[in-house]
Fold this sequence. Notes:
Layout: E1 2-11, E2 14-25, E3 30-34, H1 39-42, H2 44-54, E4 63-69, H3 81-91, E5 104-105, E6 108-109, E7 115-116, H4 121-130, E8 135-139, H5 140-143, E9 153-157, H6 160-167, E10 175-176, H7 199-211, E11 215-218, H8 225-230, H9 241-254, E12 268-269, H10 277-281, E13 282-283, E14 288-289, H11 291-294, E15 299-302, H12 310-314, H13 317-322, E16 324-328, E17 333-337, E18 341-346, H14 365-372, H15 377-380, E19 385-388, H16 394-399, H17 407-428, H18 440-446, H19 451-464, H20 468-484, H21 492-500
Parallel strand pairs: 3-4, 5-8, 8-9, 11-18, 11-19, 12-15, 15-18
Antiparallel strand pairs: 1-2, 2-4, 6-7, 9-10, 13-14, 16-17
Amino acid sequence: MLAKTLSAGVLGIEAYPVHIEVDVSLGLPQYNLVGLADSAVKEGAVRVRSALENSGFALPPRRVTINLAPADVRKDGAAFDLPIALALLVALELLPPDCLDGKLWLGELGLDGSIRRVSGGMPIALWAQQHGQPQLVLPVDSASETAAVRGLTVYSASSLLQVVEWLQGGAPLPTVDSRVVGLSASAVGCDLSDVRGNEQPKRALAIAAAGGHNLLMLGPPGTGKSMLARRLVSILPPMTETEALSATAVYSAAGLLGGKPLLQQRPFRAPHHEVSVVGLVGGGSNPRPGEISLAHHGVLFLDELPEFPRAALESLRQPLEERQITIVRARCAVTYPASFSLMAAMNPCPCGFRGSSLRSCRCDLGTIARYLAKLSGPLLDRFDLHVEVPHVDYQTLLDGKRTGDPSSLVREQVMAARALQVERAQRNGPNALCNATLSADAVLDVARPDPTGEKLLLAYARKHVLSNRAVHRVLRVARTIADLALAPSVGAAHIAEALSLRVLDRPGSGVQSL
């Protein structure tokens, strides 16, 4: 007898339907699985047989043929165990022939018949919502991921026997209620006012948050660069529901969601400097999202920037511009979203104390040049802001007084600035929701300075030989500074502050020759 049912797979963060056909016929006992399945799917034959037998179903010796369609798309993972087992029971006439209709099934089987969590519950739920497939049956831990997707009936199952009894008219499976999950801007105990002193770096942090700009911090060890970076999330606006669903889909596809229905805060990713290119941008034989995609709609922080492999840093250039990364393999091309704010920190020299007020630098010029040469000019051009983070006076630390505005107040200013940018986006296109993503034409349209500001920018650019990209980035930052001040146009003061936040353009920074 032939039985059919519906499941789904995930390619990148996009789900696709998988039609499962099981045919049981007379002949030598065999278990044939076709449909471009990987080893995890093929090994499911052992799991399915053991799960059925340990659930009380004796399988007669038959020829079993299983087809996973479409046949030209590679299937991976163990999520097809449950639908294959149920379709096999239908083909053996142990379940009603139409009991699987109208539902999408996912679940990995344990040898005892338990149903274990699978990756990709959120992307599959989004696909089901968009394609009119309102009923899903998922493992308990995976079903909870779909709570933020409305318009679905999601059943949560813990064992194969529980599902079979339900299909035979027994106790109904529990359902997951759709609900709106509250979104938060910052984690508890992480506030910008915790940082004592260093008002200019904190100002740069607010500008970066308001315009979505990339920020590079330079300073000796122990000045608070990492502390500042971790507080960027606390002043970013809360994610919209669309942003949260998009970011959550990445974590769900990577199997990192942990049963949560939705990411409630913007992601903050800080990979170690020994991360590989694949670990940073994604990839592998079965492509998985990398750190830049896990930071989607959040912050990617690279501490000790020159210590990262040159190849890994160069791989960031394209996704920083395109806000996505495409990984091409022989049989497929997978695109992951990568719209993130890049923050980086570095020492001014290998010993870290060049220009320090506390200790003398012991590095010679050749050593410093080789250290800075690890960073290419095109990569540095993609940082809109680069600021120095000096040592804070000991007395300021011992006073114990919070300095500067708290994150809640700065976040209100950031949200007001972003609201102005959203209004302008109607004219400049949907990809210009923040100033950092303005196109070259849009920059000249909305960020052209007044005559005094233009004269100042031209003089600075000619003196320090700025690239065209750098000039556009100065204009974007100046537009953000004007938005924070709720100013309708960009003036000389905004240009001057934007230029003051680019310390690597100044003589003596040691990178002009890169």
